[in-house]
Amino acid sequence: MNNGRSGNDSLLRTASRWLSGRRILPRVRKANRAAAVDINASRDAWGASPQWAKPAYGGYYATSVAIYAAIRLRTEALSRQRLLALQDDLPVPDHHPVQVLLDRANRWTTRGQLWTAIETNLCLWGSAFLALEPDDEGRMEIWVLRSDRMKVIPDRERHIRGYVYVGANGAVPYTADEIVWLRYYNPLDDFSGLSPIAPLRLSIDMGMDALKFNRSFYQNSARPDLILTTETNLSDQEVTAFYQRWESRYQGPANAHRPAIASFIKDVKPIGFSQREMEFVQGLRWSLEDVSRIYGVPLPLLSDYQRATFTNIKTAEQLFWRNTMIPEMRFLEEQLDHKLLHQLGYPQIRLRFETSNIEALRQDEDSLVNRQSMLLDRGVLTINEVRRAQNLPDVPWGDGPMER
Description:
404 residues, alpha+beta, 2 domains, three-stranded antiparallel sheet, 14 helices, 11 strands
């Protein structure tokens, strides 16, 4: 373990020195006045602490049914929506460099795979790192890097000096303008995202312990369902003879519910679940409910149909989109507008997810159209105002009140 850590420390030292010599941005002033006292020397050299992006967090995706189901629902919902590049509130042509990059991240990754990787990294580690690298022909590509292997190198003047990707066989340094860092806000660390699993891990561990307990119970438990007490001590031969007679008379479906007679049996004591065992069973449901709370996925969508009806499942789908996925899309749009487009050199472009094909929101869309039609009919809105709300171009005759 110490040798491995020393090797990683040496790699980080080398990468940090390389980044120190790369002055992409001029050093004109500190990022903020507090930066100088908030970054210590070791953190400046070694990168942000890995405590918020533990590799073990990724293991929950492969071992917890609830975690896997919640993240899969979020990634499938997000990957079905196309991210559009808009200029002057109108979609740019499909051949525009920004739209091409969004639709084809790189030669190996489709649009859906890109958003699946981004959302999975955010859901596991609270951070997603997108490397911007040109291909052999000079066209920019997006590569999603594993968040638990990235080190953020702070800087007293530029806030972030760069990044270092630490793999099994080496380290790869990136300058600040070569990485787009998406992260959930972490009030405890300026240079780490906050993983949703951080507050959830104890509950998930409890649920996984309950599953392991139940598995071990069925595999290894030698506890009988009944205890038969007698007034005399039986020899091994008498016990064996009793079981043979009992099984020959009462075993099998043809002998089900057949009356039993045992003259030497004094009492029968059934054995049920203990209080501790019942708590383990309840722990499974509590763990599922916590996953639902943290990831914003209603229980019926996690196949918990205990109190499900057609109406509340439909409501759950609407809540999932309104309260979880639409805010997540707005978060990604804002982050990419601020970081990706700025680094690509297209500050005039805005990114917006296409949401018109979301079935759960169509009722809201229909209500909006009806409301706009009513306001248009009463002269409150103009035709062009309604068209802009639908991302449509203005028409020459659309700025005045509609003629009756």
